[in-house]
Write a structure and sequence with these properties.
The protein has helices spanning 13-22, 41-49, 63-72, 76-89, 134-160, and strands at residues 26-30, 36-39, 95-101, 110-117, 126-132. By secondary structure, it is of the alpha+beta class.
Length: 161
């Protein structure tokens, strides 16, 4: 116990891994070259739900290289993500944020991507997370549609007067 009588909370490797795997965001940790060092359970579950085998191992895949190649193929979101991650790796920015569509046969989907430099004195590491923001985007679209309908009704009323 510390002097305040509160139990001191100690972080163990097992506790940190449990926290890492409990987060809803799909997270990958990259090295200074863009290679994946680790992914969390949400990342793995999302991959399986999109057709990859349960045994698929992302470790040592070059995430940055995959994004750059997709950008070279004309996928603009991938090019923007690659550029943002490269800026973080080069320490031009501490954090890169991007939201993008990622629609599937099951329906529309959007994600919020964040790449940030991991703090500490160790080797350079970048945390990349993708959070599903589909419900937020659908609500925004609904609000825009409702606002447009209200504006059209208001214009119709003004024309009657």
């Amino acid at each position: 116990m510390n002097t305040n009588g509160n139990r001191q909370f100690e972080f163990s490797g097992e506790l940190l891994r449990s926290i890492f795997n409990s987060v809803s965001a799909h997270i990958a940790i990259l090295d200074e070259s863009g290679f994946i060092l680790e992914t969390n359970q949400a990342w793995k579950d999302f991959s399986v739900s999109n057709g990859l085998p349960v045994s698929f191992n992302f470790n040592r895949m070059n995430y940055l290289g995959i994004c750059e190649a997709a950008g070279d193929d004309g996928i603009m979101d991938a090019a923007a993500v690659a550029s943002g991650i490269r800026q973080v790796i080069n320490r031009e920015v501490d954090e890169f944020l991007y939201d993008y569509p990622c629609h599937s046969p099951q329906g529309p989907r959007w994600f919020y991507m964040r790449a940030l430099l991991m703090s500490g004195d160790g080797p350079l590491r970048v945390i990349v997370s993708h959070e599903d923001i589909t419900q937020l985007k659908l609500a925004q679209e609904s609000l825009k549609k409702n606002q447009q309908q209200l504006e059209e009704r208001n214009q119709s009323l003004n024309e009657l007067n």
